[in-house]
Amino acid sequence: MARDGMLERALAVLGCFSEQEPALTTAQISERTGIALSSAHRLLASMLDKGLLMPVPGRRYSIGVRLWELGELSPVSVRLRECANPHLMRLYEATGENVHLAVLDGATPQTSAALFIGRITGRQSIPTLSRAGGRDPLHATGVGKALLATRDAAWLARYFTGTRERETQHTICDESALRAEIDMARARGYATTREEMTLGNISVAVWMPSVDGLPPAALGVVVHLDRADERRLAALVTQTARELHADLRDGD
After folding, report:
1. CA 184-118-8 angle, 5° bins
2. Which of 35, 78, 81, 112 is the least buried, fewest Cβ under 10 Å from its Cβ?
């Protein structure tokens, strides 16, 4: 770490934070990055000054508002999420269930995940683990399987060299079984999961046609098994994806 430049060290600091640990002390950051404590103090002071970090109680640091401000300039926010919000709201009004919008994100196929950029829920919606800005595995989520259905053979070959964690006893991790799920999704035009990320829930998701300048995207709904009407939900999600894609295309 000592040979790394300032940018690499700042990125290493930012990479320490997670949903489980959104605030950290200088000592924790020093230990996790390998940056000497004295150097960490100076680096954190500079990042505070530039708004990349902010102080929180307990002599700790969290991600700064400046990063949120910069993130809102991303095409994923400016083009995709802003255009999608009215469509997501209509889908929520039609179903009363959790509605998710996710994009494919990762440096390699093996490390790729579904990054959630939009989520609408209500009091009657069932609890889910996903959140805007959160990442979930491709193999265990409806939007994730929908995104896998957009990938070509070479990409999938690399993806399947990675490991897949079993989120519940129903999670499909086996390559041949997951490939069969992808083939089924392509054949019928939508992907599903059944209790593969959260027990008692199923998801129905559809991939978006590609749009220049945007990553692959998918949208879906998550409902409780007891009230799931798969065909009706698939029709609603498919229609929403079609209308959203038309708006994105017309806006170019």
Report:
1. 100
2. 78
> CA-to-CA distance for 241 and 205, rounded, in angstroms?
10
Using CA atoms, how far residue 81 sits from 67, 101, 120, 227, in Å, is 17, 8, 12, 28
**CA 163 to CA 241: how far, in whole Å?**
30
Residues with Cβ within 8 Å of 72's Cβ and at least 6 positions away in sequence, in order, are 78
Report the C-alpha gap between 229 and 180 in whole angstroms.
22
Closest CA to 145 of 112, 98, 96: 112
This prediction has a pTM of 0.83
CB-based burial, 96-122: b 16+ in 10 Å, e otherwise: ebbbbbbbbbbeebeebbbbbbbbbbe
Q: How many helices (H) and strands (E) does the chain have?
A: 10, 9
Between the two ends of the chain, the Cα-to-Cα distance in Å is 43
Query: In degrees to the nearest 10, what's the CA dihedral of 55, 59, 60, 62?
Result: -10
Q: How far apart are CA 49 and CA 43, in angstroms?
A: 10
Task: Give φ, ψ of 102 to 5 degrees.
Answer: -135, 155
User: Are the C-beta atoms of 44 and 13 separated by less than 8 Å?
Assistant: yes
- If you search the block for the tokens 């939900």, which residue do you land on? 233
Q: Which two tokens stand for residue 211?
A: 């749009």
Mean pLDDT computed over 125-143: 77
Q: Determine which helix (DSSP H) or strand (DSSP E) holds 69, and give its type and residue range.
A: helix 65-71
Among 14, 13, 30, 28, residue whose Cα is nearest residue 58: 28
Q: How far is the C-alpha of 151 from the C-alpha of 157, rounded, in Å?
A: 10
